[in-house]
Design a protein that fits this description.
This protein is an alpha+beta fold. It has three helices and six strands. A two-stranded antiparallel ribbon has the order 1-6. The chain has a two-stranded antiparallel sheet with strand order 2-5. A two-stranded antiparallel ribbon has the order 3-4. The structure holds iron/sulfur cluster.
Length: 94
Amino acid sequence: MSERPSLKAKLGVNVFKPDKARHINIRPGFEKDPRLKAAVVVCPAGLYSVNDRGEVELDIDGCLECGTCRIACGPEVLDWNYPNGEAGVQFRFG
Ligand code: SF4
């Protein structure tokens, strides 16, 4: 029986061109907001993490544009927009 590929391996076949300026930003001053912690749990690509200071950080490279973090955290803490033009995710299915 063959082994299933890991999530990281599956996501690795996609192509990402991050639009860091526009796509998703944590609103300034909300890095420790409890609502933001939901994103650490729900993001399917695992792009949110909590640093040593208890602040939530986002590494946008690899975003699937699913919108889950937008729904989980709300627009008050996240500035969420689709990427501009040629940027964003290109899904590849192998
Ligand atoms: Fe993660 Fe989806 Fe939010 Fe992108 S849109 S950061 S993949 S939850």
